[in-house]
Amino acid sequence: MSINEILFWFLSTIAISGALLVIFSKNPVHSVLWLVVVFFAISGHYVLLNAQFLAIVNMIVYAGAIMVLFLFVIMLMNMNADQEPQKGKWMKMAGVISGGSLMLILVAALRYNQSTTGGEEEAGIGLIQNLGKILFSDFVVPFEISSVLFLSAMVGAVVLGKKEKEIIESDTINN
Amino acid sequence: MSGMIKVGYLIPLLPLIGFLINGLGRNFLSKRLVGIIGSGVLVLSFVLSLFIFNEVTASGFTSQVVYLFDFIKTAGLDIPFAFQFDQLSALFLLVITGIGSLIHIYSTAYMHEESEAHYARYFAYLNLFVFFMLILVLGSSYVTMFIGWEGVGLSSYLLIGFWFTNNNYNNAAKKAFVMNRIGDLGFLLAIFWMLSQFGVITYTGVFEKATTASVSVITGITLLLFVGAMGKSAQIPLYTWLPDAMAGPTPVSALIHAATMVTAGIYMIARSNVLYSLAPISQNLVAIIGVSTALLAATIALKQNDIKKVLAYSTVSQLGLMFLALGVGAYTAGVFHVMTHAFFKALLFLGAGSVIHAMHHEQDIYKMGGLRKKLPITHFTFLIGCLAIAGIPPFAGFFSKDEILTAALEKNIIYYVLGVITSLMTAFYMFRMYFLTFHGNFRGTDDQQHHLHESPAAMTFPLVVLALLSIVGGWVGIPAVFMENAHRLSNYLSPVFAASHHKTAHQSISHSMELAIMAGVVALIAISIFAAKTMFAKEGLSEEKSSGFGKLLENKWYVDEIYDTIIVQPINHLSSFSSRIIDNKIIDGTVNGVGKILQFSARQFRLLQSGQVGSYVLIMVVSIILFFIFQLFWNI
Amino acid sequence: MPIHYYIFLSLCLFSIGIVGVLTRRNAIVIFMCIELMLNAVNLLLVAFSRMHQAAAYAIDHTSMAGAEAQLFVFFIMVVAAAEVTVGLAIIVMLYRNIHSVDINFLNRLKH
Lengths: 175, 636, 111
Known about the structure:
With 175 residues, chain A is mostly helical. Chain A has seven helices and no strands.
């Protein structure tokens, strides 16, 4: 077993167990924390696959920003383990079975691939300058549009976040 | 093709035109015009028939078929609509158009009380009837005959129920139509069988192929044809419609139910003589049913008090005699009797109509009496009709009836004895009716007595003509006992019946024996007339209450009641059962049930929309799984 | 590593995410499981990108064959971020109205 394989299996184990613990934790805060662990593991996979840029971005955006946001909201609502209601037993069973069946189906469908992700040699597409070149030449339009997307998301979030009275007041003030 | 026969299609076409004009113009035309058109087309047709008859009697004439158009023409089936002019159809043409025109002329006076629209309707229907009857006798195939057959049934229904505001008359019309229909079913089955067996349906085609077919097939076909004849010509068991059909106007009874429509069955069997000669079983059945009907109807007529009902049962009885003739193979005799019967029965009916007209629609003979002084022409012609039907020489009925009885004797003595008994009863009840109506003292109301008067010329003229025909009509068929080779009718019709002459087995009787028997029968008939005279030509008669056997006869052997219990009531029960249970509960229930099932399942489906987001997602995931399964593994 | 290892791993994570969506009633935890699913897809995309690169490298040492997949992953992250923003805003509004984030209270869709 080369170092690659050991690392692969290690990271996979962490990822899967972390995911399981995400869904099985009673306390939402714990779920968030386990999800962060999963993100770390996935970033490790990215590094293994020599997608360095994505590994870093994953860490910064997901684990750093998004999960923190989640934590803020959870703490805003003061959620604890006891408060959370549970679904009915049958629903849980149905859910588990459905998810498991889906996995089995897809596994059965995708069994016959034999390609590999190859060895060490590659042209370094995961490197940041190569990615940057392609991003800003071939994909510049989606790039710009994504900035517009962010803008609209921000505006939407602000509008949604305001209380109703504030919206009415700001309208009347402006008129 | 000789001249007149080429335009022979005009003969039925003219009455059709009369029907259209009178029918469509019934709100505009005056009564005079309607009468002229209605009778005029018939007279024209009669003239044309005379020309055709002339050509047919020319020497060396063979039957000719005039093709008009294709009725059905498909790959395996070719049925042409064509007319066949031969001796038999020419004779029937004369009878139908001749007597038809006389009756039309009579009707112009008889129906004058009707309003204009109804008057025109009457003549339209009457013309329509003649049109169909002519199609029936002129047709060259069984299908064409059937077209006419159905048509006359329809016209009969329309005319019986002419005064449609009376429900009883409507019921009588319906009864006639339904019983006819039962017969028509037999006829249709026979046609189908012939088509499937022989492939052709024209007379010439069928008769050719029939000689090579098996006897059982021919027997089946002829039996089915006879079922049709039973319905149309009122034989047992389908005869009860004819007395009820007297609900129609009297000229209608004269034309349809005496002279023409009811003879359609005779015509059919006479036409199919080849087939019947090949199937002795059917022939015997025809004879048996004929003679039984004759006897039964005669017994019922003995005790009827309605003048028209007596004549109706007399018609049924005479038709039975005609079928007896056909059944023993004496086809000429049967057709001869059709002809003479048309003369004197039409005469009797028209005479009865004249009496009814004078008595202001009174029909009970026990309310009449002594009319001979007030209605001289009617009385005299009526007497001639009675003499003719009783079979007194030298009137027409004697010759034809005697020929039938002689043929019956040659076949089987029982037929002969029963036929003689029927003739005796015929004489008795006819003269009972005559004496009660015209002799004795008047038994009606004073009001009626004051209004008694002879009928107008339009009514008496046909009576006189028919009386003349009843006298001389029999002289075309003088049998061999009197004069050798003087049976002009037999010679005339021999080409039609040639094929079946040799097949009917009979034993000949010597001429002297025949003369002796003839004389004996005439003597018996004279005795029965005298007996009727003693019983009924008296003063001071009144209707007696019948009892016992008389009651049975008066109530027509309760046959109608038997039919009602056996057939009509069960069908009514079945209908109400079908309506209440099958229609309302089962079929409606099923249709409503479908609706209810839909509503129920919709309600169940609605539960899916629980509003629970979680269940929505679950369903989504399950669907995705199913899609994947189908996509990846089942090659759908 | 053979590609099907990465496929299986990604599938596992994905189905765990689905099970989480179906099983949990807390709206925020459901949201987190959606993020988990997105990440599984991201992982798979990167693995495929590496697979294509390896195949192309064997032929031509300068090709940039698998780069599009990694850029796509980048955009997925972009969109995920925007989505989280808006989604959490909605959840906060929901909490303000009914003081709970239990999705069973959302059955007003029934009407």
